[in-house]
């Protein structure tokens, strides 16, 4: 009973079962995960705050008066 076709069929059936087992395991694992929605909402809010701070800092640094004040500070030093 050393038929290569028989061995090929057995390997195909085994791979099929392994694939289905893996897919089922991945789906149940994904469903069992707790929701990250509150953490995501908090992180998005924090990101929004940081973006606003960067915008304000960019306005300050690109303002002509800031450059003038910096030059006065450099002269005073």
Structure write-up:
The protein is mainly alpha-helical and 77 residues long. The protein folds into 2 domains: 1-33; 36-77. Helices cover 88% and strands 0% of the residues. It contains 3 helices and no strands. The protein has helices spanning 4-32, 37-62, 64-76.
Rg calculated over all Cα atoms: 31 Å
Q: State the helicity in percent bands.
A: over 70%
The average pLDDT value, as a whole number, equals 86
Low-confidence region ranges: none
Count the helices. How many? 3
Largest sheet: none
Number of strands: 0
Order of helices and strands: HHH
Compute the separation of the termini in Å: 95 Å
Task: Write a concise synopsis of the structure shown.
The protein has 77 residues and is mainly α. The protein is 88% helix and 0% strand. It is elongated.
Set out the fold topology.
Layout: H1 4-32, H2 37-62, H3 64-76
Supply the key terms.
77 residues
């Amino acid at each position: 009973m050393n038929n290569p076709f028989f061995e090929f069929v057995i390997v195909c059936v085994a791979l099929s079962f392994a694939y289905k087992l893996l897919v089922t395991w991945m789906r149940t694992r994904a469903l069992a995960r707790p929701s990250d929605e509150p953490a995501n909402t908090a992180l998005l809010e924090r990101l929004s705050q940081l973006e606003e701070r960067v915008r304000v800092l960019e306005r300050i640094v690109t303002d002509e008066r800031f450059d003038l004040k910096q030059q006065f500070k450099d002269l005073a030093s």
